[in-house]
Structure formats: C-alpha cells, structure tokens
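Progress report, Aim 2. The chain analyzed during this reporting quarter is listed below.
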Amino acid sequence: MRRLITAVALCAVFCGSASYAQQKGRYDGDVKTILAYDKMYQVPSHPIVFVGSSSIRKWDDLQEVFGSYKVINRGIGGAVIDDISYYADQLIFHYQPRQIVLYVGDNDVPRAEETVDTIVNKTVALYRQIRAKLPNVPLVYIGIKPSPSREKHREKIEAVNKALQQFFAGQPNTQFVDVYPLMLAKDGSFRRELFQPDMTHMVPQGYHIWEKALNRYLVKPE
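Predicted structure tokens for the chain:
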C-alpha cells in the first residue's frame, strides 16, 4: 500500500505539471506582499512556518498564541494543494524553518474533479517535495476540519483524513494532528458555532481547539 501511494505521488509531481501551469501566477500578488512584509519587519531565524490555505491565513492571533515558539504565518486564502506546491520556495524553503505546520486539502474537497485519491496523492507529493529539501525538519500536518459548508462531502473528508493519517504514521519526524473529531458535537454532528457565517472559516473558539491540539507538538527554539 505504501509503495502504491509513493508511486502515485511521484507521478503526481511529474504528471501534475499541467495543473501547476494552470495555477501559475494565481497568487503572485499575495506572495509579493509577503516578501515585501519580510523586508519591512524582521523575520525570526529558523521559525516554525505555518503554511496552507485560509484557515492558516485567517489565524489572526497565531503569533500571539505561540509567541514563545517564534512562528510565522504564511497561509494564502483560497489556496489548493497545487498552489502551496507551486509557491513552496517562497512560502517554506526561503525561511529555513525549524518546523513546518501544514494545512492543505480543504479547498480541494468541494472540487468535483478532485477525488479522495487525487487529494491524498497531491498531499503526499507535496510532502515528498518538502522532504527532498528538508529531510529532517519536523512536520505537522493538520487533518481537514469539519466545516459545515462541506458537510455534503463528509465521507470524502473522512476518507482523506484516514488515508493521510495512515501514511504519515509511517513517516519520520512527522505528526498527523486529527482536529476533525475534536470539532464535532457529542452526537457526531458538525458544530456551526465554531464557524463564521460562511460556515467555512473559524471563529476564535475553533482556533482554540487547534491551539490545544497543536501545542504539544511544536518545537521550541533552542
């Protein structure tokens, strides 16, 4: 099973060039803004880089919550897995991170063309891309959250999370943090009170759950 995932993931890296081409330049403006910010404000050396889609981007008090860990927020709203892969040099490798916290796949879920297998394989391909340059840096992958706006895709989300949890369990210096069950009600229903009116982005109570789940896995600076 692991060999199959690896083979398909490698294919996704090379065969996905057409997908990358479609994404090329989509977030150039956002990335330029981030790089301009870096010139204006001193970025900690070897920080923990939080990277991914809007659930990272909108974590407004991230640096305050994890202040002692020297973290930076490099999320991009609306990003899919291909976007983070395309901008990995600017969003991840540029900072020589001490640790990486990754949240991707959420925006891929509602796309009809993205199956469980393609989401899993693209995530694994991104992981391989990171490991090719940063083989020993601790990495935390946050499982896809149960957004009420995605409730009709519940089985898809659960299948992706299960497959990725199994994959990451076999990888060194890698931790899968499963926030999905932590954000459900006791009866298994989606908790709308954890989300903004769009039922996709979280309110502070939702982020507090993430904070508690992640805190034990973050690496403090020496």
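Residues 1-22 have pLDDT under 50 and may be disordered. The longest strand covers residues 48-52. These observations will guide the mutagenesis work planned for the next reporting period.
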